[in-house]
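Extended Data, panel c. Modelled sequence:
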Amino acid sequence: RDDLYETNGMGLKEKIDEIIEKVPKDEKPTVLLMFATSRNVSVRLPNTSVGEMLQDLGAENIAYDTKLSEEEMQVFSLEKIVERDPDFIFVQTMGDIEQIKERLIKDVETNPAWNTLTAVKEGRYILLPKELYLYKANTRYAEAYEGLAKDLYPEVFE
């Protein structure tokens, strides 16, 4: 239906384009995108939906390295994370949030190096809401983009 295409397709695209247009062109915040379940924690690359949103918003994913294979990038080490010291850490979660928090503490946060990261020290270690960032946001994509934009550029997106 043409009306639904206009509203849910083109209308949504226009809203997203407006958000992207506001992004400061002279800033390139570094991000680490993680994926956490009750069983494990891994990193996500720019080829995921949230990775692409971050890229659209001018962020640089520190896990992406053209010298490594996709498999090597997904097992990114804490040493590499510390070395590249991201401005932001975003975590997508799947499953019970309390169990995920326990897994994050066990696998990541208990390492003393974790607290040396700029993102952690400055309160930019962010668990993303599942309804916008785990599942496809569909008609809420503009809201998902805006949520990330507010985190990345609070001075622009109040």
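The mean pLDDT is 90. This feature is highlighted in the accompanying rendering.
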